[in-house]
Amino acid sequence: MLVDDSIVARSIFGRVLGSHDEIDIVCEAEDSETALRELETNEVDIILLDIEMPKRSGLEALPDIQARSRGARILVVSSFAEENGPAAIQALSLGACDTLAKPGRSGFSGRFSEILIDKVVRLGRSSRQRSDAAYAVRKAVDCKAIARPSCIAIGSSTGGIPAIYEIIGNLDPSFEGPIFITQHLPEAFMAFFANQLGGLTSRIVKVAEAGEPVRD
Which terminus of the chain is more solvent-facing, meaning fewer CB atoms within 10 Å of its CB: N or C? Predict the structure, then answer.
């Protein structure tokens, strides 16, 4: 699904992505509200989402689009999404799987097209793998509750940051054991992510280093 207020951008993205045999363009939308309506009747695996659009920006609508899409992977493609820039970081923290800076009109061919196709294909393959494994995961979740764990370990893949924020923000403050979080993120985003978590809890939050011992 292509969500961009520029008909030129949608046309270029459609032409570039449509040239790959693993990619089909299911639907398009010129703004976030139209995207939400399209998702009521269309099932998609990947959404290309612009940031600056009329009515609601892509970042404002991202959580709603993610919920309405029933698990689609969101790739934010915008001229505001410079790698490791504020908008890219915010997009990742809201649940986007990846970001890509949109070039000027003359820069859509060549390297940009190759990167765009590569990102979409990889997200599509990971989406299918996740869908295939979903039933097995549901069947496997059957374990005894631990009355008082000595530590908590959380593993999360791309797009899982909002869930981690919710877990940490609602954690019983009486729990004093260590919490270990593994999260698939660009390295440059790790310190920002740690700071965000630190704002949700009175705990010391830091990015672990190789070989670092665990301390109380």
Answer: C
CATH number for the domain harbouring residue 86: 3.40.50.2300
pTM here?
Answer: 0.71
Same domain, 163 and 214: yes
Q: How buried is residue 20: exposed, middle or buried, by Cβ count under 10 Å (0-12/13-18/19+)?
A: middle
Looking at the DSSP bridge assignments, the partners of residue 152 are: 179
State which residues form the domain around 51.
Answer: 2-137
Total number of domains in the chain: 2
Q: Tens-digit pLDDT profile for the chain (216 aa)? A: 999 999 999 999 999 999 999 999 999 999 999 999 999 999 999 999 999 999 899 999 998 999 899 889 999 999 988 876 888 888 888 888 889 999 876 677 788 999 999 999 998 887 655 554 444 555 556 667 666 788 899 998 766 787 888 888 888 888 888 899 998 777 777 888 888 888 888 888 999 888 888 876
Distance CA(78)–CA(5), nearest Å, equals: 11
